[in-house]
Specification:
This protein has about 170 residues and is mainly alpha-helical. It is built from four helices and four strands, in the order H-H-E-E-H-E-E-H.
Length: about 170
């Protein structure tokens, strides 16, 4: 029983579990914010166009039972807005270069069976090499520098013009 308790404690306090909990809390707060945007801004435009505050009052009565298709339409609009806002945020993050260095997906180490990055050269758990030949330290550093340069690509200056010289008079 003690071993089971220790395993549970290590699982509950692990970084992955804390990341998951933090992501859930932020996601719930973000969903509330988008729902507020949908209800207080977007649905007000619907009210201005269609003359109704929202679609929740739209019902169909069949054999005495009310089918609330208006509530479904409102929830569908909220979901679509949440999905669109999340899509735009992810596109912006990738545009800014934050998501480029991150490996999406994983592979299993053939030696220790832990999940590792698909681009890993050495397993971070058991330290076994995962490629036939490791690059030299100088080659690895130059590859890393090249990746960072591509990630931080800033606008280039206009050719033939120095930044420290004033504009010519017109």
């Amino acid at each position: 029983m003690r071993r089971l308790w220790n395993e549970f404690k290590s699982f509950a306090i692990s970084g992955n579990m804390l990341d998951l909990a933090l992501g859930f809390i932020i996601g719930a707060a973000f969903a509330t914010l988008v729902q507020s945007l949908a209800n207080n801004v977007f649905m007000q435009f619907v009210a201005a166009i269609f003359g109704q505050q929202d679609f929740t009052k739209l019902v169909v009565t069949v054999n005495g039972a009310q089918i609330k298709y208006g509530q479904f339409l409102t929830d569908l609009i909220n979901f679509m807005m949440l999905a669109a806002v999340l899509f735009l945020i992810i596109k912006f993050i990738i545009f800014m270069g934050v998501g480029r260095g991150r490996a999406f997906g994983s592979q299993q180490c053939p030696y220790c069976r832990e999940q590792i990055s698909p681009s890993a050269l050495v397993c971070k758990f058991c330290r076994q090499p995962l490629v036939d030949e490791l690059p030299t330290l100088a080659d690895a550093r130059s590859q890393l520098d090249e990746q960072n340069r591509r990630r931080l690509s800033l606008p280039l200056p206009i050719p033939g013009r120095r930044r420290d010289t004033p504009d010519p008079p017109r």
